[in-house]
From TrEMBL:
Its main location: cytoplasm. CDD domains: Ribosomal_P0_like. Keywords: Cytoplasm, Nucleus, Ribosome biogenesis. GO terms for biological process: nuclear-transcribed mRNA catabolic process; ribosomal large subunit assembly; rRNA processing. Belongs to the universal ribosomal protein uL10 family. It comes from Lophium mytilinum. It is found in: Cytoplasm; Nucleus, Nucleolus. One of its GO terms (cellular component) is nucleolus. This is Ribosome assembly factor mrt4. Associates with the pre-60S ribosomal particle. The lineage of its organism: Eukaryota, Fungi, Dikarya, Ascomycota, Pezizomycotina. InterPro entries: Mrt4, Ribosomal_uL10, Ribosomal_uL10-like_insert, Ribosomal_uL10-like_insert_sf, Ribosomal_uL10-like_sf, Ribosome_Assembly_uL10. GO terms for molecular function: RNA binding.
Amino acid sequence: MPKSKRAKVIHMSKTDKKGKELSQKLFANVREAADTYQYIFVFSVENMRNTYLKEVRSEFADSRLFFGKTKVMAKALGLTDSDEHLPNLHALTPYLAGNVGLLFTSRDPSTILSHFAAYTQTDYARAGIPATQTFTVPAGTVYSRGGELAVEDDVPLPHSLEVTVRKWGMPTRLVSGKVVLEDEYTVCTEGQVLNSNQTALLKMFGVAMAEFRVDMKAYYSAATQEVKEVEAMEE
């Protein structure tokens, strides 16, 4: 009697094996980079965007950047003085918590810190982050920038979008082929945690509220075998 398809067992060994191989590769790459570069920076990322992280990788083509799998990276550096890869390197691993990565470089630390202190990229907000400003669309004809530009510099919102913006919560209606609001409509208030409807409206009106930023937390120097906390150093 043939086996039922419902009773078919799917073995995860191949998936597990691939994941293990990737972790082992990351472990080896982190250790190789530690032996190659003079400094190891731990950095955190605000409003993660792969596009901007790729830009950072491009700008630091002479360095190595790793992001994700913090437990593997921490183990590669060493969790204690008995298993650390380089002298006193275990002192860097407590900073490997949260949305963080490692930057291996031989560039001077002052250059790295000044570069990232000035580096930001603005993007559209995603659901779950707080609004950085209050955004209100004026009453009357709805324009493509929602009142951010003077009427003479803007164009009315296409009538074909009326159903869409209404679905996203704006109480609009069509009047003589134009999208109209009876009263002003506040899309979000400063500090309010945004939902998907709000972020969709903000993007449509061209209002960017997310800031991609890389913050350096601490770094290790191979020459001095010391770990410096960036905030403490800057104070």
